Amino acid sequence: MGEVLTPLIPNHEIISPDFHGEQNDNEDGDGSGTNGFIEEGKRQLSLALPLIAVNMLQYCLQVISVMFVGHLGELPLSSASMATSFASVTGFSVLLGMGSALETLCGQAYGAKQYHLLGVYTQRAILTLLVLSIGLAVIWYHTSFILVTFGQDQEISAGAGEFNRWMIPGLFAYGILQCLFGSRGAALANGISYWINVLCLALYIKFSTACAKSFTGFSREAFNGILSFLRLAIPSAIMICFEYWSFEMVVLLSGLLPNPKLETSVLSISLNTCWMVYMISVGLGGAVSTRVSNELGAGNSQRARLAVYVAAVIATSEGVIVGTTTILVRHIWGKLYSNENEVIRYVAKIMPLLALSDFLDGFQCVLSGAARGCGWQNLCAFINLGAYYVVGIPSAVLLAFVFHIGGMGLWIGIICGLSVQAVALVIVNLSTNWDDEVMKASDRVQATGAPE
């Protein structure tokens, strides 16, 4: 879900400062042609596969939690589903969006060989997001009240409120976890796992030689340039949130349909499935973001363009494979989440729609990664606004509540939004002047690296 963050600069690249020099030895000119295309594909896959593995493992924490809660009954499943959707809308997606500004900043700084800026940018982002998290925790604490205010079912809202309160880390979390394995235990398990992940990564960055050039210790520079960071981070958050909120809104809207427990349960399973598959695309998007930002920072406009074209081909191939697999497992997938026959049958019915949305979502995710590598967050925010809130959500509401198609109507509306987003991103990439993007990248590294 929205809480997954991708590593921005692969470790093996940091180990090799002459990475771009090695590229020049392996390619002629701008790297175009069949050999250049194949080499770029290999390079992206070598970056993407570790990212996919990391994202999948992280997201499985949430998937497994929902699966266990689902077998406790329909009400616990719908409550946990509503809670995670609310948490994503009000917390995870905001933090993910703000943090994604680092994809542009760190990637282009690395391409320009300003390695020390990676550590400064990261510290600056952590300080900003920690302050923001205080306010988000207050919102989570009042989840139940907020959901009831917006017309959600009382029982579901109460369970969702409890789940999200237990998602807020506590000093006594370890002790309580030993005694619980209901929805509260699942929430605590997620939180503890994330903190362990943070601790391990912090220790790795501190002691690993791979990060010696990018992290040179805590710096007062992190307190400078925060406004410059926010000028990119806020559009990044808006870009991500507009997209993520529309998907989570499907679950929230399903609580207003007749038989909300069934609709919320099935739409949550659909969304969890969609996000799990999306982790593959996030890995591919992270790879192309790194490649595009690195090449722009290094002044290689044509290689940046080639990286986008190669990524589009890889995303299309991945989408066909994932979509076909989704259809093939449609009759057994619901059994992983629930013992209710009604839920299992409904999941099988909606899975073909998921296959189509997985294909479109994967394609646009990769193009969005390229956009983040270029620093197009402002433009993408407007694209996502139009795609999802002018087309997607209104279509979903119309199909679900006016034409009474129910939860499937909500998902068809999301597919409409995805289609518009994908077409718009294709047009933007095809009309890009990559030489201009190189100049913008150079200006951005100088501006964000200097103190205010």
From TrEMBL:
The lineage of its organism: Eukaryota, Viridiplantae, Streptophyta, Embryophyta, Tracheophyta. The keyword Transmembrane applies. NCBIfam families: matE. It comes from Rehmannia glutinosa. Belongs to the multi antimicrobial extrusion (MATE) (TC 2.A.66.1) family. PANTHER family: MULTIDRUG RESISTANCE PROTEIN (PTHR11206). It comes from the Eukaryota. Pfam families: MatE (PF01554). It is a multi-pass membrane protein. The keyword Cell inner membrane does not apply. InterPro entries: MATE_euk, MATE_fam. Keywords: Membrane, Transmembrane, Transmembrane helix. It is found in: Membrane. The chain crosses the membrane at residues 47-70, 82-105, 126-151, 171-204, 225-245, 265-285, 306-329, 379-403, 409-430. This is Protein DETOXIFICATION. Residues 14-35 are annotated as: Disordered.
